[in-house]
Amino acid sequence: MKKIFYLIYYLKHLDKKKFNKFLNYTEKLTGRPRFFLLRDVLGSVFRYNISLLEYFQFRFYYLIDQERKKWAGTGYMYEYQLRMNPKSERQILDDKTLFYKSYNEFFLHKVADLKTLKSNQKLCQELLANSSGKIVFKFAKGKCGKGVLIRPADDFTIESLIHFMENEGYDLAEEFLIQHSDLQKLSPSAVNTIRIFTQLNEKNEVEVLGCRLRISINSHVDNLAAGNIAAPIDESTGVVTGPGVYSDITKPDEYYHPNTGVSIIGFQIPFWKETVELAKKAALKHPQNRSIGWDIVITQNGPGLIEGNHDWCKLLWQLPVKKGMKEILEKYV
What we know:
Elements lengths: L1 H11 L3 H15 L3 H15 L3 H6 L7 H4 L5 H11 L6 H4 L1 H7 L8 E3 H6 L1 H8 L5 E5 L10 E4 L5 H11 L3 E4 L5 H6 L7 E7 L5 E10 L13 E4 L39 H14 L5 E9 L2 E8 L4 H5 L7 H5 L3
Antiparallel strand pairs: 1-4, 2-3, 2-4, 5-6, 5-8, 6-7, 8-9
């Protein structure tokens, strides 16, 4: 019965245009009849607890049963993350306002919520005078880069900044971060962040589940869901070990950035040791949430925290390494 509810959820939230695009592509790629593929998609939803789109993104049309079982899909991840990060505790990660107040010691940039700005003109002025010359506006419950707006700081006075946030419904205003020059050369269209997945074991020790570099492609955000790419990083060295991959199966992997021509494989993440240390320290700050995906910016002065995700993305975790990794999580359950 539970899997019926999952199917209803998947259908309700299905991007039909993307589904048809993937289906048409797979039909031509494999030569299999559409009816066969649709039947396999539906069967896989029930058998492997994945979403309709994940059938294509995990390349199930190429995989035998034993390989398919290795992938962690939406249904499995929902239950796993609910167990690791209970609803009663995850609000501190879900709400960006609570997050920056709780993890402020790991931030390099100024962040302020609307209520604080109204009562602190000095902070408001400091935000408007930040060295980047830009302000980033966010919703407290924003996900996957949606709703993020970047504006020149010169567009605002203290009064107009507050008025703008009230009218547009923005909860947070942040100093725009200037990324490290190496990352700027790789991809200048957005701040390219590091995602580190951490897990607390039974001894409350931090274990790293994986590290990824998110790379923007003609976008002001670097999220995979926004059409950008992600590449795997070696945890011990901070060197990128594979090409950038899309969540769109119709697009080929990128071995060089399509705009700058910089090689993706072999790219060295600056301040790598400090970056991993930051993620591990943050993971211990509020151990009631045990499995978190941390977004970290690398600047000329070192790494800084941007946000933590209790519902971290299984696509970003698995697609760049081109394998299912469910078995890694099963030892923590």
